[in-house]
Amino acid sequence: MNVEDLVSEELVLFTNQKDQQLLLGEVADLLVSKGKTKSSYKQAVIDREKVFPTGLETEHFSIAIPHTDSVHVNEPAIAIAILENKVPFIQMGSNDVIQIEILFMLALRKAEDQLEILQLLIELIQDEKNMEKLRNARNPTDVILCIKQFSYETLEKGKDYDSTNR
To answer: What is the C-alpha separation between 39 and 46, in angstroms, rounded?
Structure first.
């Protein structure tokens, strides 16, 4: 599954939300309103975040990747929220509070797709140049172009790697 198939301008949100639960609700509502998820998705993603935190901090950026069970998903998608204010999230695998700047909310139907998408997102957040572009984006078009360009470049690197290591 390609990330390009999951992102679209209609699923990009610029928000000044400061509260984690309200932020999760706002982004989940966007997925519900576009028919990507069932109405049960919103509460499920909020509840899951309390038990399995999805904050992820790197040297330069902090993000969150909230998601929930596929039973709440109608059609695979990723909603992206660019935050005007940093929002506190608990870091994955710890009780540390981090301040996130970008949120990627996953609505996926298959577990194997989740792993592939998470790997790409981890590579993206480790790329300071592209994350800076995302953080500074001012419209949905710029956000989607940045994601698609990064995804394309990553796929091309993978092809180059495969062909030189055979």
So the answer is: 13
8-state DSSP, 76: -
| Cβ contact 25:157 at 8 Å | no
Tokens 């062909």 correspond to 163
d(CA 122, CA 70): 21
- pLDDT surpassing 50 at residue 163: no
User: What is the C-alpha separation between 47 and 35, in angstroms, rounded?
Assistant: 21
Residue 70: CB atoms within 10 Å:
14
* Those residues with Cβ within 8 angstroms of residue 11's Cβ, 6 or more apart along the chain or in another chain: 30, 31, 34, 36, 77, 78, 79, 80
Each residue's pLDDT tens digit, 4-30: 789 999 999 999 999 999 999 999 999
Please say whether the beta carbons of 108 and 117 come within 8 A.
Answer: yes
82 DSSP 8-state letter: E
